[in-house]
Amino acid sequence: MSTKNPLINKRLVSVAPMMDWTDRHCRVFHRQITRHTWLYTEMVTTGALLHGDVPRHLDFSDVEHPVALQLGGSESADLAKSAKLGQEWGYDEINLNCGCPSERVQKGAFGACLMAEAELVADCVKAMRDAVSIDVTVKHRIGIDKTESYEFVRDFVGTVAQAGCQTFIVHARNAILKGLSPKENREIPPLKYEYAYQLARDFPELEIIINGAIKTTEEIDFHLQYVDGVMLGREAYHNPYLMADFDSRYYGAADAAPKTRAEVIEAMLPYIRQQLALHGHDGKGLRLNSITRHMLGLMAGVPGAKSFRQALSDSKRLALGDPRLLTDALANMQPLAA
């Protein structure tokens, strides 16, 4: 594990774990834009680690630090073993998923449905804390189905905190376990940011991080008046250059001038070449699109962004596995993006 810079000790801003999106290639890309923002893996189930291909799920690049491994599971022994694997592979934090509302996740008896079993979550947290020396954190909703009282989430946090969890990432919506898709669960249940604010007031000794439809630095600044950190979700993916000034704005890294978009692309090229060399780019190996798909939003809001996205989506060029696709896409933008 890398020696940590003291600037990264707080999860002041972070990027949420997002299935099919925040894989290792996405995280390396985000690292070219922000050095200190805390990053999270996609959720990895305990079953995938204990009975599957561990390197495929846990391998990552040193540049990704600080990076947290999010686990999905509800068996304390399995979570403890998986957390230990995460620490051995060098992750900086283990996060337990108590927020995903998908029915597929529910069938595995984890995700948001665990909020109904606070004592079980506490047992799982204790088992993981006993197994590792790194932080064990919990990401959760504010309620499930029609249980909408603040007291529900307060009691959940209070119970789990007794097991030693010090950091709670609060997606400030209810999770509707039946009848809504995961996408609808991110949009339909009303946001109740005040519940997260109240948790921060009621548990001043805990680190409370807020999550849910936060899209601008102005919104981040507002929330930081009331909570300890802000987690961005889809905005960080679709508009990643939003994070370009996070190091200076939130971590005091005044000497770290942000890369331009063009410099971000240049910085990604060695990584892309390395990954293609390691894994190949034929039908059985790594496809160039596995990396470039995470970069489609880099030019969001810049004239020529559509041209850039179209160039990165050219199936014929992608099939060739030539990273020059990126520099050509940049060169063809009108006007050239900064």
Number of DSSP helical runs: 17
Radius of gyration: 20 Å
Helix-strand topology string: EHEHHEHEHHEEHEEHHEHEHHHHHHH
Mean pLDDT: 92
- CATH class type of the largest domain: Alpha Beta
CATH superfamily of the largest domain: Aldolase class I
Catalogue the unreliable spans. 1-8
Shape: globular
The CATH topology of the largest domain comes to TIM Barrel
Number of domains: 2
What share of residues is helical? 40-55%
Protein name: tRNA-dihydrouridine(20/20a) synthase
Site (Interacts with tRNA): 97, 183, 186, 309
Function: Catalyzes the synthesis of 5,6-dihydrouridine (D), a modified base found in the D-loop of most tRNAs, via the reduction of the C5-C6 double bond in target uridines. Specifically modifies U20 and U20a in tRNAs.
Family: Belongs to the Dus family. DusA subfamily. Belongs to the dus family.
What this model shows, in words?
The chain has 338 residues and is α/β, with parallel strands linked by helices. It folds into 2 domains: 6-251, TIM Barrel; 261-331, Up-down Bundle (Four Helix Bundle (Hemerythrin (Met), subunit A)). The protein is 42% helix and 14% strand. The protein contains 17 helices and 10 strands. The protein has helices at residues 24-33, 46-51, 54-58, 76-88, 103-107, 118-131, 150-161, 182-185, 193-202, 217-223, 234-238, 246-251, 261-279, 289-292, 305-312, 315-320, 324-331, and strands at residues 13-15, 38-45, 67-72, 93-98, 135-140, 143-144, 167-171, 174-175, 207-211, 229-232. The strands form 2 sheets. The protein has an 8-stranded parallel barrel with strand order 1-2-3-4-5-7-9-10, surrounded by 4 helices. The protein has a two-stranded parallel ribbon with strand order 6-8. β1 (13-15), α1 and β2 form a beta-alpha-beta unit. α15 (305-312) runs antiparallel to α17. The radius of gyration is 20 Å and the shape is globular. It starts with 12 loop residues before the first strand and ends in a 7-residue tail after the last helix. The model is unreliable at 1-8 (pLDDT under 50).
